[in-house]
Amino acid sequence: GKKIYKQTTGGAMGSSLTLTLANIFMSNWQKKLVEEQTKTGEFYGR
Q: What does each C-alpha distance from 40 to 23, 31, 37, 45 come to in angstroms?
């Protein structure tokens, strides 16, 4: 049957706010990763 679920935590997928927050988080994560890999001579591409 059809069920309805209520989201109790987090932001709505597809909203401009959660998209912006996800981009900020991933940008910060990627910057730290690239800095670490530069030290070890590794390569990261996305």
A: 26, 15, 5, 15
